[in-house]
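for the writeup, i need someone to sanity check this before i put it in the appendix. the sequnce is what the collaborator sent (i think, or maybe the updated version? ugh). structure was predicted straight from it, no edits. if anything looks off just tell me and ill rerun, i have time this weekend
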Amino acid sequence: MKNKILSEMAQKIMPYQWAKNVGPEVLRFDTNTLPNHPPCVNKFLKELINNCPINEYGDPSYVNLKKLISKYEKTPEETITITNSGDEALDIIGKAFLNDGDNFLIQPPTYEIFKSQCEINRGNAVEVPLLKKTFKPDVKNVIKVLKSTPIKITFVCNPNNPTGTITELEDIELILKNSSGIVLVDEAYREFYGVTCVPLLAKYDNLVILRSFSKFGAMAGARIGYLLANKKLSQVFDAIRFPLGVSYFSCKLAEKFLELDQNWIKEQTKMIKNERERLSQLLKKLGFFVYPSQANFILVNFGKKASEICEKLKENNILVRDRSNKKYLEGCVRITIRNQKQNNILINSLKKIL
């Protein structure tokens, strides 16, 4: 296709480099997913045999799912917008707030879709990098930029992907108070941290929270998420989203999950936290520097041989997320926390490689 047909944005944008597509025999430490699907999936599939209205549209208002999310999040139904994944939610945010050339603020290294989705919506990125040695947020500099530059959207990934570091609630409040635009707090990994901004929704009209069933719900394949915001913003988001963007199956599975698997969420979260600490200590004993994490993954500095180690792990059917060639992340590899058996396989493989 001739370039003159494409928009300037389409000519510049690069496809997101997703994790490799591999067979079921490979252990995936690269996608930040949970090691098991929730128990409700089996019950859900059995019920589909007897009741599967695939020939009809689902409910475009997602009333039942909103009721269940409202109970889980302890926030009114009118604050909830259901989306086809957290990534669609980011597209909605870009469409809702960005005109050509409007600024949005990101804190790299962070979730790459923040930048790409806003650039697709004609936004201009302003970067305030995380502090170099700790990957903690440079809040003072963020506030300085917010006071000196018109920023439409400020992104806070909490816990942050790929570092696992967090922004304290008091710092998020400082950012909210000093922002003339909205502050988008991505809480995809919240359950592994245990702290949320949801109570702040009633206090700040410029707060938007992004949530996804992919992580705490172990439903990455279902592609379903939601936004939390004040009533007026939620109405705008509902007007922008596709009316039937979430499939009947994904919606019903999410409902079943919230109805049946509350205890499972707690059990999985506890297991991940325990394994996060254990795996971190084992990696430290092997001589690696491990950054403190509050997510279901850890960032590990493998040094100059990071890519070489990743390739050798791949030869052993183990995939980790090699970030060592990325700006700010030189030598670093992101490792998903899995169950004890799988984590032991990773450690034993590393011992053989080293």
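DSSP finds 13 helices and twelve strands in the chain. The chain has a mean pLDDT of 94.
thx in advance!!
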